[in-house]
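A protein record pairs a chain with a discrete description of its three-dimensional fold. The following entry can be read in just this way:
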Amino acid sequence: MIQRLSTLFAAALLGIILATPLHAATKSCGITAEADEFVPSWGKVIIDEDQYTRYVIQYMYWHHMVRQQALWGNIYSTFEPDVLFYNYDGDAYGDEPIGYWDSNLPSPYVDTQFGDSDDEKAVTIGSANAVQLEPETMYYTVTRMSDGGGNSSWVKLSSQRGIRSPTNCYSTWCSFGCSEELNNVRAVPFNATIKPNNRRFKAPGCMRYWYDWKYYPSPFYYECE
């Protein structure tokens, strides 16, 4: 009986998933936003591999509460700092999250790639309770990931704000991007030029960025020391 109920539950869940539009759905968050109202002021990404797997580490920091006002504007807000690997040629450095992960983001979760384009492989740890993010606090995410098949590839960092629905659910399946503009901003685009040597950023590698903070022009990208 227990096994039959589990099978029925799994079938019902699959039916809900299959009925969901194939691209990441959006819902109203109730407010519009500018990029500098939710994109981190500063960030750092480390992409590499060790004897076990490839991995991604991100750090992010909002220097003032005004930089988080779009996340505080809805008590059910979510936030996803996406790391996306260029896969238009089938040679992405990273494929998908596997195994160990950790984060000090409020109510963290591993984001799903369900419904995403195969051209850009997203490896993301999101926050299901972004209203609890604090300014002047260093946040991090770390996750191991599977090999995408390439020895190197372009990388894009994207900041997405969203909303939980239903509101008592804190998993990846209940996080939806905001239907209002702006909801998704490229903090670091593919093929970004980083100082001081003006090289194009690729994985594996390490870089820092400043978004509308301290440096002009913005965003400003710099090699890790």
Notes: The chain has one domain: 24-223. The helical segments are 2-18, 69-72. Residues 24-223 form one domain. The chain has a mean pLDDT of 90.
